[in-house]
Write a structure and sequence with these properties.
Length: 510
């Protein structure tokens, strides 16, 4: 909880201290005052920011005009806010205000009991016309440990007209902004059946950005605009299936759009927001923190956040505290991987070692999204060009399926031996063991196809025959040669009459 003047706010602890410096100062005591320096870092700075005014909103301290330059006499104070992670309990907090000559002008200190592992606090420095101008620094200490520094500049000059920094938005303002610019995107097959739902957002006039996985495998797209009106969208203006983003042309003149955040935004510790969709057609505001920036070979950069949103939010925006777009929710590392979400069989830990965690929400940085070079294609042309993963339209016929090194056929349904998603070329072969639970009675032709991550078909089996009958559960295994495959990650599709019924991913090593 936050704590200020005896009032509590969830979820962090907050304390404050105000310091006034006049024209005559007294030298501060020795910098060693306030405790013994710890042998190693105990407290870790999550974020820090300065401004001239701020307030507690929704359990967070919001700096309303974040900046690092202050002007006398217009500005009356400097507020410096720190947020840490550290041990709970009683601590002594100190703020060392250091003037431009490097000397400690004054120390503000007090004791406080942290009741949460994450807590924040701010110090306020009152400004006067007699203050020394130049570069100042606030050095924060907890229990004698230097836990962060923040530098800012004080100038004795009129504030320029463009000095105002962007204003941090409240949670309510971010929700309203996101709701007015975000759309739902329904993927439809050739029969008009709904394959899945994702999101997107306007980033310009008639330009909707989304995740590539939110359009993958579709024959057409139905877009629900912020005002509830529905429209079709079948034209793609830019895409990258490995980076997991796409830009659609959606004719909706006058619809508000979001702005991109700066290129250096989205660093570890930043507070961010997502528009989740836990129910059909509904939106909720989710709050998270940036916890990492990752590089993935072939897939590019990803922002990692502390939030796991629903599948309906994939393709939506990640917003910063100013309502700017940091990235696109999704970030699939293996194209086609998200298509196996929601089917009756579950994916294993072994599969996640190969493809990455399929349920983890990563974010594609918005600076990767580009319309250069200019491209304009239809969904049909993307499918014909091998960009799309075939949708799993026959998955209801499957009860379960695994990959393994051997199959024990002495049991009624067969038993997988050495179940895994990683094989060596020296294994020479692997097995796919599928248990069928038919919903329709029919005779079908079965085919197995192998693809690399670029969606190039690298192998295909000869056609086989299979009789399906409701209530007749049966297991069938296929032996698949792998010794000619180069090391890498591959996708296996099992088709019934040319439509995908089961899918998995596997890795080949030397």
């Amino acid at each position: 909880m936050y704590l200020r003047a005896g009032l509590g706010f969830v979820p962090f602890l907050l304390f404050c201290c105000t310091t006034a410096l006049g024209g005559r100062w007294q030298q501060a005591p020795s910098p060693n005052a306030g405790g013994v320096q710890a042998s190693g870092p105990v407290f870790h700075v999550v974020r820090s920011v300065a401004g001239s005014k701020g307030s507690v909103q929704g359990g967070r301290y919001i700096m309303e005009d974040p900046r690092t330059i202050f002007y006398i006499p217009q500005d009356k104070q400097v507020i410096v806010y720190f947020e840490w992670e550290g041990p709970m309990g009683a601590h002594k907090f100190e703020g060392y205000w250091k003037s431009p000559d490097g000397k400690t002008a004054v120390i503000s200190d007090f004791s406080f009991e942290a009741k949460d592992k994450r807590f924040g606090g701010y110090w306020t420095l009152t400004l006067s016309e007699a203050m020394q101008t130049g570069m100042w620094t606030l050095e924060a200490r907890v229990d004698g440990e230097v836990t962060g520094t923040f530098s800012f500049q004080i100038l004795s000059t009129a504030m320029p007209g463009d000095a105002a920094a962007p204003r941090q938005l409240s949670s309510a303002e971010i929700y309203k902004l996101g709701g007015s610019t975000t759309v739902f995107i329904d993927r439809l097959d050739s029969q008009g059946r709904k394959l899945g739902r994702g999101s997107g957002f306007f980033l310009g006039e008639n330009l909707v950005v989304t995740a590539f996985q939110a359009i993958d495998g579709s024959s057409s797209l139905r877009v629900t605009l912020p005002n509830g009106r529905q429209t079709d969208a079948n034209t793609v203006l830019g895409w990258n299936r490995r980076q997991d983003w796409a830009v659609l042309e959606v004719m909706a003149p006058g619809t508000p759009h979001l702005d991109r955040a700066g290129k250096d935004s989205g660093v570890v510790g930043d507070r961010v927001f997502v528009l989740d969709s836990p129910s059909e057609g509904g939106r909720t505001l989710g709050e998270a923190d940036v916890v990492g920036v990752e590089e993935h070979a072939g897939a590019g950069r990803r922002i990692a956040i502390t939030y796991s949103c629903s599948s309906g939010a994939i393709g939506g925006p990640l917003l910063d505290e100013y309502g700017k777009v940091l990235g696109v929710l999704g970030g699939a590392l293996s194209p086609g991987g998200p298509t196996i979400r929601g089917v009756r069989f579950s994916y294993s830990l072994e599969l996640m070692k190969v493809t990455g965690p399929l349920t983890k929400v990563l974010v594609v940085p918005i600076d990767l999204v580009s319309l250069t070079p200019p491209r304009r294609v239809t969904l049909a042309e993307l499918a014909q060009g091998g960009q799309f993963t075939q949708p799993l339209t026959q998955s209801e016929e499957v009860m379960s399926g695994v990959l393994c090194k051997h199959v024990d056929r002495k049991t009624p349904f067969g038993r997988a031996i050495d179940e895994t998603n990683e094989f060596r070329r020296t294994d020479r072969e692997m097995y796919a063991l599928i248990t069928w639970d038919p919903k329709t009675k029919r005779k079908v032709q079965t085919t197995i196809e192998l693809y690399d991550l670029e969606n190039h078909k690298v192998a295909q089996s000869s056609p086989g025959k299979l009789e399906l009958e409701p209530g007749h559960v049966r297991a069938i295994d296929w032996k698949i040669p792998i010794e000619t495959l180069s090391p890498g990650i591959y996708r296996i599709d099992i088709l019934l009459d040319g439509e995908a019924a089961w899918r998995n991913f596997f890795r080949i090593t030397e």
